[in-house]
Specification:
Cyclic Phosphodiesterase, Chain: A; 160 residues; 34% strand; alpha+beta
Protein backbone atom coordinates (compact mmCIF):
# COMPACT_ATOMS: atom_id res chain seq x y z
CA UNK A 1 0.00 0.00 0.00
CA UNK A 2 0.97 3.61 -0.57
CA UNK A 3 -0.21 6.46 1.57
CA UNK A 4 -0.59 10.14 0.85
CA UNK A 5 0.38 12.04 3.98
CA UNK A 6 0.57 15.68 5.00
CA UNK A 7 3.54 16.73 7.14
CA UNK A 8 3.48 19.42 9.81
CA UNK A 9 5.80 22.39 10.12
CA UNK A 10 8.82 22.02 12.43
CA UNK A 11 7.10 23.55 15.47
CA UNK A 12 4.03 21.29 15.30
CA UNK A 13 6.25 18.27 14.54
CA UNK A 14 8.23 19.01 17.73
CA UNK A 15 5.02 19.42 19.74
CA UNK A 16 3.69 16.02 18.63
CA UNK A 17 7.06 14.37 19.35
CA UNK A 18 6.99 15.92 22.85
CA UNK A 19 3.58 14.28 23.44
CA UNK A 20 4.99 10.96 22.20
CA UNK A 21 7.81 11.30 24.77
CA UNK A 22 5.42 12.28 27.60
CA UNK A 23 3.24 9.24 26.91
CA UNK A 24 6.29 6.98 26.83
CA UNK A 25 7.69 8.51 30.04
CA UNK A 26 4.31 7.79 31.68
CA UNK A 27 4.70 4.10 30.82
CA UNK A 28 2.23 4.16 27.92
CA UNK A 29 2.70 2.90 24.39
CA UNK A 30 3.62 5.69 22.00
CA UNK A 31 5.31 6.31 18.69
CA UNK A 32 8.34 7.69 20.58
CA UNK A 33 9.80 4.18 20.52
CA UNK A 34 9.21 3.58 16.80
CA UNK A 35 12.79 3.96 15.58
CA UNK A 36 12.37 3.56 11.81
CA UNK A 37 13.74 6.64 10.00
CA UNK A 38 10.44 7.18 8.18
CA UNK A 39 8.54 7.61 11.47
CA UNK A 40 7.34 11.17 11.85
CA UNK A 41 4.10 12.97 12.70
CA UNK A 42 1.70 13.15 9.77
CA UNK A 43 -1.95 13.21 8.70
CA UNK A 44 -2.83 10.38 6.33
CA UNK A 45 -5.21 11.46 3.58
CA UNK A 46 -5.56 8.11 1.83
CA UNK A 47 -3.99 4.67 1.52
CA UNK A 48 -4.15 3.07 -1.91
CA UNK A 49 -2.74 0.12 -3.81
CA UNK A 50 -0.96 2.47 -6.16
CA UNK A 51 -0.58 6.20 -6.74
CA UNK A 52 -1.28 8.06 -9.95
CA UNK A 53 0.12 11.29 -11.35
CA UNK A 54 -3.23 12.94 -10.57
CA UNK A 55 -2.29 13.07 -6.87
CA UNK A 56 0.20 15.91 -7.37
CA UNK A 57 -2.29 18.51 -8.62
CA UNK A 58 -4.74 17.47 -5.87
CA UNK A 59 -2.17 18.61 -3.29
CA UNK A 60 -2.02 22.19 -4.56
CA UNK A 61 -3.95 23.39 -1.49
CA UNK A 62 -0.87 23.28 0.75
CA UNK A 63 0.05 24.75 3.13
CA UNK A 64 -2.92 24.44 5.48
CA UNK A 65 -3.39 25.82 8.99
CA UNK A 66 -4.54 23.12 11.41
CA UNK A 67 -5.67 22.73 14.98
CA UNK A 68 -4.96 19.52 16.91
CA UNK A 69 -7.82 19.17 19.36
CA UNK A 70 -8.97 16.19 21.42
CA UNK A 71 -7.73 12.63 21.76
CA UNK A 72 -9.69 9.99 19.86
CA UNK A 73 -9.48 6.21 19.77
CA UNK A 74 -9.65 4.68 16.32
CA UNK A 75 -9.75 0.98 17.03
CA UNK A 76 -6.41 0.33 18.72
CA UNK A 77 -4.87 3.63 17.60
CA UNK A 78 -4.66 6.54 20.01
CA UNK A 79 -4.72 9.77 18.01
CA UNK A 80 -4.73 13.54 18.34
CA UNK A 81 -7.70 14.60 16.23
CA UNK A 82 -7.22 17.36 13.69
CA UNK A 83 -10.14 19.75 13.91
CA UNK A 84 -11.61 19.40 10.40
CA UNK A 85 -12.18 22.48 8.31
CA UNK A 86 -13.45 22.97 4.78
CA UNK A 87 -10.01 23.40 3.18
CA UNK A 88 -8.63 20.21 4.72
CA UNK A 89 -11.76 18.23 3.80
CA UNK A 90 -11.64 19.57 0.22
CA UNK A 91 -7.98 18.65 -0.18
CA UNK A 92 -8.55 15.15 1.21
CA UNK A 93 -11.57 14.62 -1.07
CA UNK A 94 -9.52 15.77 -4.08
CA UNK A 95 -6.77 13.26 -3.29
CA UNK A 96 -9.38 10.52 -2.77
CA UNK A 97 -10.97 11.36 -6.14
CA UNK A 98 -7.56 11.47 -7.87
CA UNK A 99 -7.12 7.81 -6.96
CA UNK A 100 -10.52 6.70 -8.29
CA UNK A 101 -10.15 3.34 -9.97
CA UNK A 102 -7.42 2.13 -7.63
CA UNK A 103 -7.83 0.04 -4.50
CA UNK A 104 -8.32 2.48 -1.59
CA UNK A 105 -8.76 1.97 2.13
CA UNK A 106 -12.46 2.65 2.84
CA UNK A 107 -11.57 4.33 6.16
CA UNK A 108 -10.25 7.20 4.04
CA UNK A 109 -13.48 7.68 2.12
CA UNK A 110 -14.25 11.38 2.68
CA UNK A 111 -17.54 10.43 4.36
CA UNK A 112 -15.73 8.22 6.91
CA UNK A 113 -12.32 9.89 7.28
CA UNK A 114 -11.21 11.19 10.69
CA UNK A 115 -8.20 13.49 10.28
CA UNK A 116 -5.66 12.78 13.00
CA UNK A 117 -2.03 12.44 14.02
CA UNK A 118 -1.29 9.04 15.55
CA UNK A 119 0.14 8.98 19.06
CA UNK A 120 0.23 5.24 19.77
CA UNK A 121 -0.57 2.08 17.81
CA UNK A 122 -1.82 -1.35 18.82
CA UNK A 123 -3.08 -0.22 22.22
CA UNK A 124 -5.27 -2.92 23.76
CA UNK A 125 -8.78 -1.65 24.56
CA UNK A 126 -8.33 -2.41 28.26
CA UNK A 127 -5.38 0.03 28.38
CA UNK A 128 -7.02 2.92 26.54
CA UNK A 129 -8.53 4.39 29.70
CA UNK A 130 -4.96 5.21 30.86
CA UNK A 131 -4.54 7.75 28.04
CA UNK A 132 -5.44 11.42 28.45
CA UNK A 133 -8.61 12.55 26.70
CA UNK A 134 -7.31 16.10 26.23
CA UNK A 135 -3.81 17.31 25.49
CA UNK A 136 -4.70 20.92 24.97
CA UNK A 137 -4.89 22.66 21.63
CA UNK A 138 -1.92 22.68 19.26
CA UNK A 139 -1.80 25.09 16.33
CA UNK A 140 0.36 24.60 13.27
CA UNK A 141 0.55 24.15 9.54
CA UNK A 142 0.64 21.17 7.24
CA UNK A 143 3.34 22.25 4.83
CA UNK A 144 4.50 19.24 2.81
CA UNK A 145 3.27 15.94 1.44
CA UNK A 146 4.81 12.53 1.04
CA UNK A 147 3.91 8.97 0.18
CA UNK A 148 4.91 6.05 2.35
CA UNK A 149 5.26 2.68 0.61
CA UNK A 150 4.66 -0.16 3.05
CA UNK A 151 6.37 -2.83 0.95
CA UNK A 152 9.78 -1.12 0.89
CA UNK A 153 9.18 1.08 3.96
CA UNK A 154 10.24 4.07 1.93
CA UNK A 155 9.00 7.60 1.36
CA UNK A 156 8.62 9.77 -1.72
CA UNK A 157 8.20 13.55 -1.57
CA UNK A 158 4.88 14.64 -3.07
CA UNK A 159 5.06 18.31 -2.15
CA UNK A 160 3.63 20.57 -4.82
Amino acid sequence: MHTVELLPDARLDAEVRAVWRRLHDAGLRSLATHAHPTNRPHVTLVAAGELTSAVGPALSGLPLDVVLDDVVFLGRTVAWRVRPDDRLRELQAAVWAALDGTERNPLHDPRAWTPHVSLALRVPPEQQDRYPRRLGIALGRLTAARSYGSELRSVVDLSP
